[in-house]
TrEMBL record:
Its EC number is 3.5.5.1. Keywords: Hydrolase. The gene is nit2. Belongs to the carbon-nitrogen hydrolase superfamily. Nitrilase family. Residues 8-284 form the CN hydrolase domain. InterPro entries: C-N_Hydrolase (IPR003010), C-N_Hydrolase_sf (IPR036526), Nitrilase/CN_hydratase_CS (IPR000132), Nitrilases_CHs (IPR044149). CDD domains: nitrilases_CHs. Signal peptide: none annotated. The active site is at E48 (proton acceptor). GO terms for molecular function: nitrilase activity; nitrile hydratase activity. GO terms for biological process: detoxification of nitrogen compound. This is Nitrilase. It comes from Burkholderia sp. LC3.
């Protein structure tokens, strides 16, 4: 029997988060999910740390300033615990909409934060709750790290093999190759916004990082959904308390895109300060033609020359174990039980 290749509509979010307000952010997330589902989408993707928004304050001033303005406390308090009523409300909404969602979150686990991507199935169950392996630059003052288990691609019924990375994980060649080797078909490349330090830091800008998403599509011969947040005027007003800070960030920065496995842009971009959802109809059969030309983790590889070794074990900070009890201790225990 010949293969049957899924065909369906995908949705990519370009919008401003409800910054540092988890409850209102979930309200907005549910609205976007319902809008996408109502327009026939079966998969929706959200920007990096969409909930409760990217911590732009870490790029804007010293840590003492961040603390004094309350950003550090508010960011922690409004991050998402997967075992919380807020998380249940979101997963229930996904189930009711009957859509699969990939939501960028600041994950709160205990007293630590992680840059997460929560993949929620159309049944409301968690497919994956991955963490960014290595937060970038000043992000490491806020977030912990993931591990090799977070470089995973998941078979999702009716949608194919789905994977996700965020932001500058797309500049990590080995991490990308680990994903390609799992026959990824649809990839979510989540980005925060591209207004920070523009135009004097091109590496942080839209041209470079849209190119990273596009190269991922070509290298992996996969569809790339690249959601991107918008920085709102309200966020700028709160973050930029001096004229100097207003030179570091600005309203806009939204550059969401969708690429096909041949690197083609499937839909026009929105204006960078506009909010909306990009839609594209994708046919996974087109991946075959792309991989027929170049499959870097398959027929186009040379494992006799170069190979990648990866540790995909979920790393635990604390492991509980029991030391073996020797015979003399057993005899002593038995004697005491007889007394």
């Amino acid at each position: 029997m010949p293969l049957v290749h899924p065909e369906y509509k995908v949705a990519v979010v370009q919008a401003a988060p409800v910054w540092l307000d988890l409850d209102a952010g979930i309200d907005k997330t549910i609205e976007l999910i319902n809008e996408a589902a109502g327009n026939g989408a079966r998969l929706i993707s959200f920007p990096e740390t969409w909930l409760p928004g990217y911590p732009w304050h870490i790029w804007m001033g010293a840590h003492a300033w961040q603390v004094s303005r309350g950003f550090v406390q508010r960011y922690f308090d409004n991050s998402l615990d997967y075992d919380s009523p807020e998380a249940l409300r979101l997963s229930t909404a996904v189930q009711q909409a009957g859509i699969t969602a990939v939501v960028g979150v600041s994950e709160r686990s205990g007293s630590s934060l992680y840059m997460g991507q929560w993949i929620i199935g159309a049944d409301g169950r968690t497919i994956a709750a991955r963490r960014k392996l290595r937060p970038t630059h000043v992000e490491r003052a806020v977030f912990g790290e993931g591990d090799g288990s977070d470089l995973a691609v998941h078979q999702v019924e009716g949608l194919g093999r789905i994977g996700a990375l965020c932001c500058w994980e797309h500049l990590q060649p080995l991490s990308k190759y680990a994903m390609y080797a799992q026959n990824e078909q649809v990839h979510v490349a989540a980005w925060p916004s591209f207004s920070n330090y523009e135009p004097f830091a091109p590496a942080l800008g839209s041209e470079v990082n849209n190119a990273a998403s596009r190269i991922y599509a070509v290298e992996g011969s996969c569809f790339v959904l690249a959601p991107c947040a918008v920085v709102s005027k309200a966020m700028i007003d709160e973050l930029c308390d001096t004229p100097e800070k207003r030179e570091l960030n600005h309203v806009g920065g939204g550059h969401a895109v969708i690429y096909g496995p041949d690197g083609s842009a499937l839909v026009p971009k929105l204006p960078e300060d506009s909010e909306g959802i990009l839609y594209a109809d994708i046919d996974l059969a087109t991946i075959v033609m792309a991989k027929n030309a170049a499959d870097p983790a398959g027929h186009y590889s040379r494992p006799d020359v170069t190979r990648l070794f990866i540790n995909k074990t979920r790393m635990q900070r604390v492991e509980a174990f029991a030391l073996p009890i020797d015979r003399s201790e057993n005899d002593d225990l038995a004697h005491r039980e007889e007394m």
